[in-house]
Design goal:
The protein is α+β, with helices and mostly antiparallel strands. About 35% of the residues lie in helices and about 30% in strands. It folds into two domains: about 250 residues, Aminopeptidase; about 110 residues, Alpha-Beta Plaits (2-Layer Sandwich), CATH 3.30.70.360. The protein binds zinc ion (ZN). The site of zinc ion (ZN) has 5 residues, from helix 3.
């Protein structure tokens, strides 16, 4: 494996070792900022959310390309981040999603320099916060607020996405639903409403919905909690609900249905309230857009039959505002969002090569 690719993998491991749960990316941001400085990027800054920016200046006068990778992980601060190398793989929580993506920002700088590539415009490298969990893409929202339409395009790096091109953004709406009753004793107050029972009925209603496969539309109650003890009629219960669709209209329909079910769960002595805890608008860039075609070609040259797919990523933000945006991967791997997460090391070379060629020809 070539020296530079080894360095990208080593750097990914260094990044992976720094805890960065969503909303707590500070330490990792500091590290990336240091890397931007040693790469001699210009106009380096960290915004108030913790997004790190650095510019690679070009003699080319076209609008800049924004290349971003999210720093945050789904793993709580106390997670053991120990990793290991074994049989062409590197294991470690967050190694693929998205430490190798962040490392690729730096790797791109190395490769552009090594191959003496001049681009058609400046490249802004951005390591952003808040892509995962309840981050609600607020990091990327600030990035797109900053650059807006005044860009050539947005390129979002997702470590494990090699072989795929995301050009459509799945719309997402998330709620925290809370049921409240006056509660009581399980025996002496039997018959009084229970928040757990009422919320369970709502879950059954949601799980019974017949959602379209085309356009793909999904529902998940990902978390549920409530009650105080086995012999107490629960006075409070909560659930977190995630609704998604590739299509704006289908998402709106699902949202209406879910909100109606939630509304109808209210009855005498039972209050059910929903709070919106996340919103990612849908959007897309045509499959025939030159940048999609270019990405396909770059992947094909690395031996991948590129699959065009939709997803819920940082690219939702620019896509939903009508700006050109695409997601590309760095390598393959698996078990994302679990402590067994791993990357395959061999494809990193193809992934990086794909990215360099894409950036070189992007304008
Ligand atoms: Zn990710």
């Amino acid at each position: 494996m070539n020296e530079l690719i080894k360095r990208v993998i080593d750097l990914a491991i260094d990044i992976q070792q720094i805890p960065a749960p969503t909303f707590e990316e500070g330490k990792r941001a500091e590290f990336v900022c240091g890397m931007f400085i040693s790469e001699r990027l210009t106009d380096i800054s960290v915004d108030e959310l913790g997004n790190v920016f650095g510019r690679l200046k070009s003699k080319g006068r076209r609008k800049p390309l924004i290349v971003s990778a999210h720093m945050d992980t789904v793993f709580p601060r106390e997670t053991n981040l120990d990793g290991r190398r074994a049989g062409g793989k590197v294991y470690g929580p967050g190694i693929g999603d998205n430490s190798i993506g962040v490392a690729a920002l730096i790797g791109l700088n190395w490769m552009l320099r090594e191959q003496n590539i001049h681009t058609g415009g400046d490249i802004w490298f951005v390591a952003n916060v808040c892509e995962e969990g309840l981050g609600d893409l607020r990091g990327m929202k600030a990035v797109v607020d900053r650059f807006g339409a005044d860009v050539h395009a947005y390129l979002v790096l997702e470590g494990l996405a090699l072989g795929h091109i995301y050009h459509r953004a799945v719309g997402v709406k998330r709620y925290r639903v809370t049921a409240r009753t006056s509660g009581g004793h399980s025996w002496s107050d039997y018959g009084k409403p229970s928040a757990v029972h009422e919320l369970s009925k709502l879950v059954v209603g949601l799980a019974s919905l017949d959602l379209p496969k085309e356009p793909r539309t999904t529902m998940n109650v990902g978390k549920i909690s409530g009650g105080t003890s086995v012999n107490v009629i629960a006075s409070e219960a909560k659930l977190d609900l995630d609704l998604r669709s590739e299509d704006e209209e289908s998402l709106r329909e699902l949202v209406d249905t879910a909100e109606t079910l939630i509304q109808n769960a209210n009855k005498p002595n039972v209050s059910v309230e929903a709070e919106v805890i996340g919103q990612r608008p849908p959007g897309e860039m045509s499959a025939s857009h030159p940048l999609v075609m270019l990405a396909k070609d770059c992947l094909r040259k690395q031996g991948f039959d590129a699959g065009l797919i939709s997803g819920s990523t940082d690219a939702n933000v620019p896509l939903s505002r009508g700006y050109p945006a695409i997601v590309l991967g760095v390598t393959t791997g698996g078990s994302a969002h679990t402590t067994n997460e791993y990357i395959n090391t061999a494809p990193v070379k193809q992934g990086m090569e794909q990215l360099v060629r894409f950036v070189e020809r992007a304008w």
